[in-house]
Design a protein that fits this description.
This protein is about 65% helix and about 0% strand. It is mainly α. The longest helix is centred in the first third of the chain and has 28 residues, at about 1-30.
């Protein structure tokens, strides 16, 4: 528990104090955000705001994780390292995207194919490694079984281990792509994606601690209520570091934002959430915990699908937050109300997680 608290506190301080230093560095280099002309006109005043702030979140999270383990003399685990590796890898892809936008002064960064290749490569490496490294109980960081609150009876290795590995890699890629792009779509208003991610990360702190206390590795009479997660307590440390880094960054990212996280941050945060879901065996539960991101993503799918099929738009603009902007809602009002929705989804997800344990699985 000390490592969890240390990770959250250190990440908060590093992000809170490191962000203004990074802002000054970006201002000196002239690395400002390019704003699309077809977006809400109120966003034109944000042109030139420093971006790529996600680098601070990634750095603070990784550093806090390492320092928390040093301070508590506890070893890092492969599950925690894999999630941080996934986060950093996707952050690198996002950094390249942001850097091209800034240097070329255009809204398009990496082309679609190179960006997808980069995301897929990081996801494949994570997925393959997550099925390795069994512990004394032969548990690996991930499983070929589809999980909700714990592994279900749906096993992707139904036709053999080789088929299971391939299907799991595809499943992990889908999860990582959906989550990272969902956070990316939500990152359109000051503080929206950062705050919503903080809620979900906080949920995974609680889930990791609970799974650790009810781990099948610790309970002598292992029954249907215990969790077969390889490193639940260390995953709580990762989630705590992520939560603290997001809170510290939010101080500077809240409206009016002094810095944007950019794709560097949004892809990394989405990847971290997907990695936590896979390694805590709560893959489908992430749909509830990240319900706000699901709604925002669906608004884009509905808008594009409706326009292609009927030539008509359902929303004034997609993603959904921009629809309410054009409807006259103030930016701060939208962000706070969306945070409330995000919090309600997290509460619902945690309620179902706990109710399943109470019911005895």
């Amino acid at each position: 528990m000390r490592a969890v608290l240390a990770a959250a506190g250190i990440a908060l301080l590093l992000s809170l104090l490191g962000t203004p230093l990074f802002i000054r560095f970006l201002v000196r280099r002239g690395y400002g955000q390019f704003i699309r002309d077809d977006g809400p006109t109120s966003h034109h005043t944000k042109r030139g705001t420093p971006t790529m702030g996600g680098a601070v979140i990634i750095g603070s999270t990784v550093a806090a994780y390492g320092l928390a383990h040093l301070l508590t003399w506890s070893p890092a685990t492969i599950s925690g390292v894999l999630v941080l590796g996934l986060m950093s890898g996707l952050g690198l892809v996002g950094f390249l995207d942001d850097f091209i936008k800034i240097t070329k002064q255009r809204s398009l960064g990496l082309r679609t194919v190179p960006k997808l290749v980069g995301q897929s490569a990081v996801a494949v490496v994570f997925a393959v490694l997550a099925l390795q490294f069994p512990n004394e109980q032969f548990r690996t960081p991930a499983s070929t079984r589809i999980s909700f609150i714990r592994d279900t009876g749906i096993d992707l290795a139904f036709a053999g281990l080789a088929v299971g590995v391939v299907l799991f890699v595809l499943w992990a890629q889908l999860m990582i792509a959906a989550t990272s792009n969902g956070v990316n779509l939500a990152d359109g208003l000051d503080g929206l994606a950062t705050g919503a991610t903080s809620f979900v990360a906080a949920a995974y702190v609680l889930i990791g601690i609970w799974q650790s206390n009810q781990s099948c590795q610790l309970i002598s009479q292992a029954g249907p209520k215990c969790y077969e997660v390889r490193d639940p307590r260390d995953l709580a440390v990762v989630a705590a570091a992520l939560m603290g880094a997001c809170f510290g960054f939010l101080w500077w990212n809240a409206a009016p934002a002094k810095i944007f996280m950019g794709d560097t941050g949004s892809l990394a945060l989405g990847g971290a959430l997907a990695g936590l879901a896979i390694t805590t065996r709560t893959e489908l539960l992430l749909i509830l915990l990240g319900g706000l991101f699901v709604i925002i993503t669906l608004s884009v799918v509905i808008q594009v699908g409706s326009f292609k099929l009927t030539g008509k738009r359902v929303f004034r603009m997609a993603p959904l937050q921009h629809h309410f902007e054009l409807a006259g809602w103030a930016e701060v009002t939208i962000v706070i109300r969306f945070w409330i929705i995000a919090g309600l989804f997290v509460a619902l997800g945690l309620g179902i997680f706990y109710a399943e344990w109470v019911a005895g699985a």
